[in-house]
Amino acid sequence: MKFINRYFLLLLVVAIGAYLRFYRLGEVPAGVYVDEAALGYNAFTIAQTGRDEYKQLFPVFLRSFSAFSSPLYVYLAAPLVALLGLSSFSIRVLSAAAGTLTIVVIYLIVDKIIKYKSKYAPLVSTLIFAISPWSIFFSRAAFEANLGLLLLSVAVYLMLFPRLKYLITSAFFLGLSAYSYQSLRLIPLLLIPVHYSLFRSKKYNLKNAITIFLAFLVSVLPQIIVSATPAFRVRAVGLFYGDAIASQADKIVFLPRELASLLAFAREFGSQILSYFSPANLFLLGDPDPQRSIPEMGALNLWVMLPLFIGFYVLAKKLPHQKALFVFAMMVIFAAPAALSRDPFSTLRALNLLIPFSIVIALGVDNLVGKYGNEIAFVSIVLLTMLSLIGFWRGYFVLFASERASVWNYGYRQLADEISASREHFVIDNSRIKPPHILLAFYMRIPARQYQEFAKTKIIKGYYEDTEFDTYYKLLNFETRAIDWETDIYKNQILVGDGLAISGEQVAEHFLEKVFEIRDPLKKLIFQAYRTNPEEKCRMIYNRNRYCI
After folding, report:
1. Going by C-beta distance under 8 Å and a sequence separation of 6 or more, which residues neighbour residue 190?
2. DSSP helix/strand/coil, 54
3. Domain ranges of the chain
4. Which long-range contacts (CB under 8 A, 24 or more apart) does 516-521 make?
5. Number of neighbouring beta carbons within 10 Å of residue 520
6. Which residues of the chain have pLDDT under 70?
7. Fewer Cβ close by (within 10 Å): the C or N end of the chain?
């Protein structure tokens, strides 16, 4: 009967989590961000041709503008896109499903790793994860890191079993996770040795540890083969704070350069990693990037601060127990890739911290239940859960859906509809906006082969070698580039840009005719479109030049 109760409660928690992740999935966020559109369109081209947008056959890394991304999300999403059609919903389903499955794995980890006085502590911790703004947010868009979180969670769970077959399977999932998100290439290299050093025994000896590590290396062999190319390192190098370290090292004149650089790195890394344990960042401020945060909400619900802090205290008391050390090690290792990037608090790169945080929260809940009893704990959890859901509903489905629409590229779907409905030629000004071609290709569902024939000409040095990105694209009846005010006004076409691309003076000077404008839910101008009038322009005597016929 106890098993049935726990099973039913877990099912209820998963149902709540699934609802929060799938409800209006294709509508909120109100647009798709550029990387999401690239993932979606590549899934579309692979579903149609087996090749990515650049006509490369199942690449180890996917070219993504001037960098490269991990391919696993695209490969798993391709069948869903083939089945459901290319849309914001179809490309997000995989992430929402991964987020929902992670709820179950988090419960298994929390329930297995430490013994609790209260049998409900793992369930409450799992509920906190299920309704966490941090987890829900990244489950509601095509974030590769969210798929990586699921795979890493499975690997961590399997690590809790001492038998070799489980540990080898864990190594396989760690290898698989390395294909899902870039930072997960580093985590296994740290996690496997730490796990062995803490849990080594007669059955788990050095020979077995080497076998496990080799299993991981075999699973990432395709990445190792291209590790000498820019594709392997360009994104990580671009995010690293090397300039900040050099600047700080220059100020440490009393030490040798190498030692000064090491000291500067330690200072920067220490500052960065501590930011991921800052109460202000976790519970109040959230991610400074408006595209990755919810208005008026932190990464975690405010009331979770109490069980988390108590959990840290309880965990510290358990030291030097090997499992307590493993939890602390996971926190440092999972925060390390994020701390190596220049962003001060990136909830995306630190998403994996939700695994050890859930364990710590369970310890805190267990302590509180033991102190105040099941009845008070139950009533408190129900009330706090309801308040959290109300707060999340307001923050995400009301404020975020409208206030953050523009940073989520609201307006491109409407622009794609306008272009598709017209036979005229469009010039999309890309002077200040993110690469618009991939967003339009996504919404217009441009046939894969037609897109690939143009995109493949962009690769000059080699697929994994070329990091140059040319923003000019000419597809169907539109092209993306800066507006040329010397020549474009003498051609019959429609010029499209943001609020600064086309001024009132230019409209009057060049006799432009307004065709449409697109505004976000807050009525902020996103796009304005004007039809050129070369006949009227050339009719004026002072405008007669070589472009007039």
Report:
1. 333, 336
2. coil
3. 2-30+87-403, 408-543
4. 516/418, 518/411, 518/414, 518/415, 518/418, 519/411, 520/30, 520/402, 520/405, 520/406, 520/410, 520/411, 521/30, 521/401, 521/402, 521/405, 521/410
5. 19
6. 1-4, 236-238, 541-544, 549
7. N
